[in-house]
Specification:
The protein is an alpha/beta fold. It is 44% helix and 16% strand. The two termini are 38 Å apart. The structure holds 1,3-dihydroxyacetonephosphate and iron/sulfur cluster (SF4).
């Protein structure tokens, strides 16, 4: 592994490349990553960098987002099978139909979606800025896709905006039930419960904190508490255990695993960077239209 890590680091320098890694990746990926974090943070880094190559250790929509906003850069996804189950729940035609059935409202698109879908939307959002983005539109009604759970969570929090949601979800988070949280409260009465808003809204309301993957890690960093129940993918828990060995972390269920996120290996990162393969390409018309939606989000999130 040491040899692999050294080789990747050397290649990064030679090729003026950076590696962006999502916090659900296999933890060894961090040893070669320049930035590790949530979808918003990584898309900001993809926009800011002056690297020639971005290797995206994440899933397809994340690498595609990097290409949309940094078209002049070569963006590589080490394992092209790393998709997102939620993003795959809506295609371009389903999106157009959804809009037709609910006219006269702006469309907010969760970043977990394809470029073709983003191209039809007004503004993008991530789990860390969804409230801010919907609020910024200043309208009584919005369409929200594909994540119904996040959309309904936003509606619950903002109170004065009707959020019409598409029927998509993340199977990893959607599987968490109210009884799982109630059980955790009983078993770990001193623990703080930190929840990702891709969970059902009736689950999210039971958390001490609701936020993105980076938000959850930031909460722990600032907290004086010693025990935390983590209600998101296992990668976040792994990183917290590594970074705070004196604190206790309990993963809400042991099946909180995003298989796609775990597909990327150090071998594949090396191979794609060395041979510059598995490049993300996009139709320029789709790219430009989807860029509007992401750029608008980045402006509001500054
Ligand atoms: P974050 O933006 O919180 O990293 O979430 C992305 C994701 O896919 C969660 O399942
Ligand atoms: Fe997609 Fe869910 Fe995996 Fe996140 S955890 S990348 S939403 S399948």
């Amino acid at each position: 592994m040491k040899y692999l890590i050294e080789k990747i680091k050397k290649l990064k320098e030679e090729k003026n490349a950076i590696i962006l890694a999502h916090s659900y990746q296999n933890i060894e990926v961090d040893s070669v990553a320049d930035f590790v974090g949530d979808s918003l943070y990584l898309s900001q880094k993809a926009k800011e960098t002056d690297a020639d190559i971005i290797v995206f250790a994440g899933v397809y929509f994340m690498a595609q987002t990097a290409k949309i906003i940094s078209p002049e850069k070569k963006v590589l996804l080490p394992n092209l099978n790393a998709g997102c189950l939620m993003a795959d729940m809506i295609n371009h035609d389903q999106m157009v139909n959804f809009k037709k059935n609910h006219p006269n409202a702006p469309v907010v698109c969760y970043i977990n979606s394809t470029a073709e879908v983003k191209a039809e939307c007004d503004i993008c959002c991530t789990s860390s800025n969804a409230l801010k983005i919907v609020k910024s539109l200043n309208t009584p009604k919005v369409l929200f896709l594909p994540d119904a759970n996040l959309g309904k969570w936003v509606e619950k929090k903002l109170k004065d905006v009707e959020v019409i949601t598409y029927d998509g979800n993340c199977p990893v988070h959607h599987g968490v039930e109210i009884r799982d949280i109630e059980l955790a409260r009983k078993k770990y009465p001193n623990a703080k419960i930190l929840i990702h808003p891709e969970c059902k809204p009736e689950v999210s309301v039971l958390g001490d904190y609701v936020g993105s993957t980076s938000g959850i890690m930031e909460y722990v960093r600032k907290s004086k508490d010693r025990q935390f129940v983590i209600v998101t993918e296992k990668g976040v828990c792994d990183r917290l255990e590594r970074d705070y060995p004196d604190k206790k972390f309990i993963l809400i269920k042991n099946n909180m695993l995003c298989e796609s996120m775990k597909l990327t290996t150090l071998d594949e990162i090396l191979y794609s960077l060395e041979h510059e393969v598995n490049e993300i390409t996009l139709d320029e018309n789709v790219r430009k239209r989807s860029a509007n939606c992401i750029e608008r989000m980045l402006k509001v999130s500054k």
